[in-house]
Amino acid sequence: MSAPPLIRRFTVDEYHRMAEAGILHEDDRVELLDGQIVEMTPIRPEHAGCVDDLARWFTQRLGASAVVRVQNPVRLGTHVEPQPDIAVVKARRAGYRTEHPGPDDILLIIEVADTSLERDRDFKLPLYAQALIPEVWLVNLPGDNIQVCREPRAGSYAETRTARRGESLTPLLLPGTTLPVDDILG
Asked: What pLDDT is stored for residue 77 in this prediction?
């Protein structure tokens, strides 16, 4: 009987050094998930349009009170630096030029899924819950609904519900901001 292969998990710092050394390039569509460098799925037009609409909507309504990051990294721990489609983070006087936002900075994460639904749901959601991200929306384009996940506990979300057309969503940490599900789904 052979021993299982040893798996080498990379840290966020090692991941950044790979980019500095030219091993990873700026146009490589990868993210660091639980120490693994994971290739991201291609972005199709419906996905891109949904992300554009969400970014525009949140930016217009939140102004300078928060920062809307589009497909930019958030650092969730020593081995986790995903690039969510939308991350609404706290505004900081110094901004985020010297470090990526961490769990305490994050107000809302939105993942838009068409071909990436299983990976986002089964792999990324638990990582967000482990990092105690207070709320994640998983926009399920093929299913025409949005899974709303709140109350992170022990690597999962204690409260999950499915929002459908005709409903509206208000993020927990952005109480004056309500968005119709129809506007998200298009």
From this structure: 94
What's this model's pTM, rounded to 2 decimal places? 0.93
H runs (alpha helix) in the chain: 12-20, 45-62, 117-119, 125-130, 181-185
Q: Give strand pairing partners of 108.
A: 88
- Residues of the chain below pLDDT 50: none
> Would you state the pLDDT for residue 129?
98
Amino acid 101 reads P
What would the DSSP string read from start to end of 61-89?
A: HHGGGEEEEES-----BTTBB---SEEEE
Q: 130: closest CA among 43, 46, 35? A: 35
Single-letter residue type at 168 = S
